[in-house]
Amino acid sequence: MNRRTAMAALTAMAIVSTQAYATDWPTKQVTIIVTTAAGGNTDLMARMAAEQLTGRLGKPFVVENRPGAGGAPASGAVASAAPDGYTVLFTPNSAILLAPLVQKFSFDPDKGLTPVTNVGTGSQVIAINRSLPVNNLAEFLAYAKANPRKLNFAAAGTNNISHLAPLLLFARAGVELVMVPSRGEPQAISDLMAGNVNFYFGNASILLSQRSHPAIKLLAVGTAQRLPNAPDLPTASETMPGFVFASWNGFLVPSGTPPEIINKFRDAVIATVKTPQMSERLSALGILPGGQTAEEVKAVFDSDRRNFSEAVKAAGIPAP
What we know:
Helix content: 40-55%
Mean pLDDT: 92
CATH superfamily of the largest domain: Bordetella uptake gene, domain 1
Shape: globular
Largest sheet: 6 strands, mixed
Structural class: alpha/beta
Number of domains: 2
CATH class of the largest domain: Alpha Beta
Radius of gyration: 22 Å
Low-confidence stretches: 8-18
């Protein structure tokens, strides 16, 4: 056997060995690092998935919450982890696409992380105080246009969806509202119910549970599709074509992770999300069940990247 033949044989053996290793994945515990605190929708989806993946793949999937700084520490830890499928990220894609537009990152998420698939897309809902003389989103925007800067909206924090999505909507509609900062979503909803603010773009899982409250009216959802548990609520894009602002929540792995592991991981998540039990649990929370293909994830990331960039520009936020 000459040297060239021997090298080719060794390369072939290495490829077969890597593929066999990837096919055996997982052989030990998988750590899921979550960019948010325990208790919210993102954390809940991660834990639901971890429970099902543990049973499906036969090894423990353990959630570790690392909130703070827009998700940068958590996503950075995964990006620098070994690309072997044993340290993975679970996050809303805003932590990967939006956060770098408004704060300094020590790494490039696009280069350091590879999306796998999502567990669910959390919807936001446009809610207004019922005292306004409008019945749908088109009427609200027309009313706001006729009353420039006389209406206001609550933002549960800054540089997040509740802050930036309304600004993008208002910019596209050519209306002006005054922002009223809130300490968080509970205060924003309380202010909406009390009539202190006119408009709020908040989590569907909370606002849908308050739908019968006499002080608020729900106008539209931010997802591209209507929600299974609120099919009568139109999407915002039915009034404002192209306006989609939702929260993709799913898994990413360190770049360089073998495709065999990524594909096996994706297939397992998709199979889990598509079960009736998981789909029903997600839908009940106002979350559209996920399980997207690699091509579908890319399309969502490309669209959200454009939306986030446009929203940051509308908010007048300077580059970090």
